[in-house]
Amino acid sequence: MTSMTDEAAAPGLSKFQFIALMAMLMAVNAVSIDIMLPGLQEIGASLGVTDENHRQYVITAYLIGMGVAQLFFGPLSDRFGRKAPLLVGLGIYGVCAIAIVIVPTFGALLALRFVQGIGAAATRVITVSIVRDVYGGRRMAEVMSLIMMVFMIVPVIAPSVGQLIMIFAEWHMIFVVIALFAFTIATLVVFRLQETLNPDHRRAFTPSVILSGFKIVLTNRLSLFYTLATSVILGALFGFINSAQQILVGVYGLGLWFPVVFAAFAGMMAVASFTNSQLVRRFGMRALSHAALLGFTLASFLWMAASLYGPVPFPLFVVLYGAAMFQFGLIASNFNAMAMEPLGHVAGTASSVLGFTQTIGGGVIGAFIGQAFDGTATPLAIGYFTVAAIGVVFVLIAERGKLFKAHNPAG
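The chain above was modelled as a monomer; its predicted structure follows.
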């Protein structure tokens, strides 16, 4: 691990610039999903999709492509460095966005979204690897929290940008904006980001070496079960994203106010991430994330109980769901940092396995929850509590039944 000061995070970049660039890379996936939510109905209508739940496949296809490809980009970045594979991924992502503009059928759109997800996998895997190259322990959790805070600003802005595009243009223009975003980030990577992988840590790109790296990750109890816990919790978030337009517009009748409410929930996660960045070096990753996991479980249980009793009034829905999402903001960055902490020597491969498991696992769970939509928010509430309870079990296994026990010193 490289020793960094607050002023310098990576060669040629201040800490602020480093966090901003990493957040932009992470935001590629948020932009790909959130900016199009206001346009899903028009996408389905223009391409002949009759079942409203099938519109969710635009998101699911992307997540599957991204999840599978992460298994390859991690080992590639351990062999060839972080920068080159990252640029390849951004190129694939941007070209697919342009191709979708002229797509003739819904099936072709889904195929391109799958390939676009493959390109986006590079940003997910390699960004986490770069952060692990530079930081470790509570410092990594702090920086990841700041990255997540900036990253969460995108869901605040993206739906409103998508809504604005839909007012003045049709849904195709959304993908033009996505392509421009990707090529802008690629330009910054070319001219501003230097290689962060230590040459001594490069690993051969052979089946035996790749499999040995996967074995290191999958046999580490802490990494494996924190990854699984993150996957199921992420599945709840994907479930909401899949059905957000149907719930907020169809159930609660928000109409044009949909992006505002969606942004407010994302804003809660951003505030939580910032709070975590300020507290994690003092209290530790486990104290904060374990308390947040229990809070997430409690909020989800209350929401489920209220939903089973009858239709949940919108103000109560906002309070309970908002409370759950605030806890999520404390969980995500800490769980990822704890999963990566023991694996710095194979950061690329580790990030790929962790990313694959979280994206595919979360994507499948989210698709299952989203497809259960029945005209009410009850399936989503049940899904949230179910994954929360499973997450608690995984964390207990990771920690051998003991919560709140610090592993890293403060500072």
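Confidence is low (pLDDT under 50) at residues 1-7.
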